[in-house]
Amino acid sequence: MFTGQNNGQRWWQTAAVVAVAASLALSGCSKSPESTSGTSAGPTNSTTTVAPQKVEDIAATVPENIRKSGKLVVGVTIPYTPNEFKDSDGKIVGFDVDLINAVAGVLGLTPDYRESDFAKIIPSIEGGTFDVGMSSFTDTKEREQQVDFVTYFSAGSQWAQKAGAGIDPNNACGKKVSAMAASTQVTDELPAKSKACVAAGKPEIQILTFDGQDAVTNAVVLGQADAMSADSPVTAWAIKQSKGKLESAGPVFDSAPYGWPVKKGSPLAQSLQKALEHLIASGDYKTIVSNWGLEEGAIAKPVINGAIN
């Protein structure tokens, strides 16, 4: 549930610097999805998924410059398992990837995935470098001022902890909580909870930010953080892959739509929406969601700019 960088929030920068260094130590800058804790960041290969045929009338709605290029240029930040990450062969895979691959098939395009820092994806869409973003973006009112979104999934936030740790997300004052840099958990959720702690005369939450979700999870497994906060599908996957080392800390909360960002006013938004509607009607969308065990977040109808907040 990523959000853009908030320049007004600087109080956690020191923790971020320390955490990034820890992230590099934990991940070893490896392309492998295996984490140093012994928990798997995802399957070793992509799932068996769908391969829809081009639908001529939908493909005809794609902007001419994209249609002529034959490519859909997609900006993506890796890893955010199980939504987007690299398999054991270094191939970009995941739920989001399977879905964009299917949408591109309907549109008669070949997806061209280009890795980017998360904070640079929307500016790159505005500048025309990327056609669309694919990194578990939350569709927000603030973001809709910059780009348009096509919604495709519903996700909330959820905390994970070491088994038996007894962490309460609503009373975590003084605890160390890890989260993905630039995520809504870092820019909104955790600062708000920490501020409430201070207002009540309690110690603030120590927010540890990392550039990769693997390092966020490892921080909890290795005892560097008391808990982690991430999008609900990411937390569920981390718990599943931890083989009993992690468990949920509280229920899913603050559900909101994921969306694909495109340039403001671009007709590509309607093309993506129509392609996804086709996949929902054909049952291919359900197949993809089920392949990743994410049925709970499936939507019935995509919309353009469906932000809740």
Could you describe the 3D structure shown?
- With 309 residues, this protein is of the alpha/beta class.
- The chain has helices spanning 13-27, 56-59, 64-69, 95-107, 118-126, 184-199, 213-221, 232-241, 268-282, 284-291, and strands at residues 71-76, 85-86, 92-93, 110-115, 132-133, 147-162, 176-180, 206-210, 227-231, 246-263.
- The chain has a 5-stranded mixed beta sheet with strand order 8-7-9-6-10, sandwiched between helices. Strands 4-1-5 form a 3-stranded parallel beta sheet, sandwiched between helices. A two-stranded antiparallel ribbon has the order 2-3.
- Strand 2 (85-86) and strand 3 (92-93) form a beta hairpin.
- The two termini are 13 Å apart.
- Mean pLDDT is 86; it is low at 3-45.
- It holds the Pfam family SBP_bac_3.
- Keywords: Signal.
- InterPro entries: Solute-binding_3/MltF_N.
| Secondary-structure element series | HHHEEEHEHEEEHEHEHEHH
- The helix content is 25-40%
CATH class categorisation of the largest domain: Alpha Beta
| CATH fold type of the largest domain | D-Maltodextrin-Binding Protein, domain 2
Mean pLDDT over the full residue set: 86
Q: Would you report the number of β strands? A: 10
**Beta-strand fraction estimate:** 15-25%
Largest sheet: 5 strands, mixed
Region (Disordered): 31-51
InterPro entries: Solute-binding_3/MltF_N (IPR001638)
Keywords: Signal
Domain Solute-binding protein family 3/N-terminal: 71-296
